[in-house]
Every structure is written in C-alpha cells, then in structure tokens.
Amino acid sequence: MANLRRIFFEALPKTLLSRTTGFVADIPLPRRLRPKVYGWFARRYGADLSEMDGALADFRSLSEFFTRPLRADARPIASVPLVWPCDGRIVSSGPVEGGRIRQVKDQDYAIEHLLVDGPLAARLHNGTQATVYLAPGDYHRVHVPFDGQRLRHWHVSGALFPVNEATAAAVPRLFVRNERVVFELRLDDGRAGALVMVAALNVGNIRVSFPTSGPVRRGDELGVFSFGSTVVAILEQGPFGWPTLPPGTVVRMGRAARE
What is the Cα–Cα distance from 95 to 127, expressed in whole angstroms? Predict the structure, then answer.
C-alpha cells in the first residue's frame, strides 16, 4: 500500500493542483454565505473559532479564513525560554542523531539537506529538533519560539507532496523534497537555531510576515501558510532544547515546550 501511495503521489500534478486550489480559495464569497461555509469547515476539521480575531463574515475568502489571526489575549506566551512555534501534532521530537532527523519510524534525513546550508547544519548536528504537523483545522501562523535574533531566511524550491502521516511513511526524505522557507535564528545565549516551514499539497503559498533581520521575542510572528503543513524547529545543543514527546502529541503555539 505504501508503494502504491508513493507511486500515485509521484505521478500526481501536485503543483498544478495546488495552484488551482489556491485560485479557488482566493475567490471572494458573498458575505451572507461566509458564516455557513466557514462554520461547516470548522466543524469538519475541528477548527477552534473561539480564539480568532474578528467575525466569520469579515473573512472575504477561504484563504483569509484559513490564515485567520488570533485575538491578542487568546494565547498568552509562556514565561519560559522555549515555547511551541505553532499549533499541531508532534511527528517526531528530541535529540538530533548524527545530524539526521527522524521523519517516521525507520526513515530519516540529513539536516544539511533540509536547510541547504552546510555551516548552519554543522552547528545543529547534535542539537534537538521538533517536527510539528499542522492539520487543516489548525491555526496556520508560525511564531518565534525563543528570544534572540532573526538573521535571515531563504526559499528552497521543491515538490508539493502531502505531509500527512500516511504519505510521510510512504515517501522517503519527504521534508527535504518539498518546497520550504528556512529561517536562521540565534538565541540570546549565542546558540544557533533554525525554523523551517515546509509546504505541502494545496499549501504552495508560504508568506513571510516581515522581511528584515533583527531582534525577536518568543511569540513574534514569522510566517503564514494556507491549509496545513509542517514546521521543523532545530536548536543547537545547550542548556535547554526540544523535548522528546510521543508522535501525535498535541502542541499549541505559545505554550511551554517541555515533556
């Protein structure tokens, strides 16, 4: 079954499908229909509407609703050194082993291939990582997980495979094959950090929230994607890092990253 799934998605015109979905999702909806359409989506995918900023009728299109912001008071940022950068479920987390990150059981990939930056990958070689899958109903904005500096970001071209559990198990090195945006960060203690927003089928549009480098605080917004996808956050070895959690553990942006 895994081989059939891999062959199917290899052959699928993923970019064309994603661009078409994006075009349809950007079409403005009549105001009177918006609460019904978005309410159905929320029920279907388990989206929490109690935290969003604004009313359902205020979002002109499905794309705007998918990327809805949170109320300013909806998600207090924990007073700890490391918080979760996004909502979602853990794919894998814990120590980086030999410069490689586990994708699923019996499958892994090299940090260098994910980042496409050898010197940065070398600093993160023995650090910790957290890979978080964002489902369609999740909050889709990604935030800085610690205080420090945002140094730069770059785009890596690639495919648009789905990133759900079944496809991740079927397609080797999935996260280094997909399109992505890499942010290079630095903690206040001087350690290196990286956060990677991995695109997926129907999530070809990753929007960087602000283009400049400079100081950042945990909870600052980094970027946005439509529908769901995956975030890979990596920290250089040091006094604290990403905890080891079972796959499927639910995490929420701004909450303390601990076991």
Answer: 6
Check if the beta carbon of residue 236 is closer than 8 Å to that of residue 124: yes
141 within 8 A of 69, measured Cβ to Cβ: yes
Exposure b/e, 100-118, CB count within 10 A at least 16 = b: bbbbbeeebbebbbbbebe
Name residue, tokens 């910790």: 128
- For position 209, which CATH number holds? 2.70.70
Q: How far apart are CA 83 and CA 45, in angstroms?
A: 25
Residue positions annotated with a catalytic role: 87, 143, 229
Residue 75 lies in a domain: no
Per-residue pLDDT tens digits for 230-248: 999 999 999 999 999 999 9
Indicate whether 246 and 178 sit together in one domain. Answer: yes
DSSP 11-70: HS-HHHHHHHHHHHHTSPPPTTTHHHHHHHHHHHHT---TTBSS-GGG--SHHHHHTPPB
Q: Residue 5: pLDDT band by 50, 70, 90 thresholds?
A: low
Domain that holds residue 188: 88-251
